[in-house]
Amino acid sequence: xxxxxxxxxxxxxxxxxxxxxxxxxxxxxxxxxxxxxxxxxxxxxxxxxxxxxxxxxxxxxxxxxxxxxxxxxxxxxxxxxxxxxxxxxxxxxxxxxxxxxxxxxxxxxxxxxxxxxxxxxxxxxxxxxxxxxxxxxxxxxxxxxxxxxxxxxxxxxxxxxxxxxxxxxxxxxxxxxxxxxxxxxxxxxxxxxxxxxxxxxxxxxxxxxxxxxxxxxxxxxxxxxxxxxxxxxxxxxxxxxxxxxxxxxxxxxxxxxxxxxxxxxxxxxxxxxxxxxxxxxxxxxxxxxxxxxxxxxxxxxxxxxxxxxxxxxxxxxxxxxxxxxxxxxxxxxxxxxxxxxxxxxxxxxxxxxxxxxxxxxxxxxxxxxxxxxxxxxxxxxxxxxxxxxxxxxxxxxxxxxxxxxxxxxxxxx
Length: 413
Fold this sequence. Notes:
The chain has about 425 residues and is α/β, with parallel strands linked by helices. Helices cover about 35% and strands about 15% of the residues. It has one domain: TIM Barrel.
């Protein structure tokens, strides 16, 4: 049947609004869908045989949860090739419309019981060895670590960031530079440690295959963070990076409180490729509430000055800054993103995730509408300041697991 002019016009409007290709016209808006998943998390039925492989009995202790809210989810690989760090162990999941299930040999994300997106989870062999204590896989190929699970602000009553659980558990961990370098060298050079088991291939057959790996993980970058140190922690990072540089040529991204220019130059000389100063909250009133200790010692003007200096030292598109959606009005988050971009940094807006054990465990989830507003503004800000997130060589923006940034750039939202 020949399509009418009205039908063709409507289809063209759909293509333009969604910014998607001809073959993708009838697929869901992937950026919006990933955003909603990041906001609301995903359920897994306890009756499924793979339940414990996806939902840990407790958060990873000993630094495995990393600082902030990035290490608290499960890393899903979505059908369009991008990762998604989704909440799987939080109380708010009871109200999530999303569920992961393996159906007839395929991994699916369901919304209200309807299939919306294929997905799987890959687990590298080194996650079953002692090297997992030092290094974890993030995204498609990021070797991620936290130098410590201690934080000067968490040790002071009322000073810690309210959303963070880096100090969860009783074990205190500090990874010596040589130990990190040794772990990374082993992972890079021993291909058997990088063999990955695909969850869907393992359980999506009549008899779950407990042995056959699906592919080999190829490391792309190294991503390092830590709890805040009394001196800002730049010395700790410089030592770790210098040790890693002796055994690896991978790009290295770090997340650190904003230091002075001499410390930035020292980090660059040690081998840092990309650097992130995580503003997290923009409006002053909310900063005092959410990140009281960091706000006192590192006011936002200090972040912007460090970003401008770091851009000169590390180069264009190698400076980033997290900002969290849902802990202040969306318009303030947008203003914060513009201030970051104006200073030479790439803003990384991440939907807030209430974590069990954090001070903000009972805070409400961010609304999808607010997150969409932020990501639409983010796309325009990136264009306005001629930033290129795809040129970032290391760090969280390159990983894209905690954001839909590549999706927003390619498809719109």
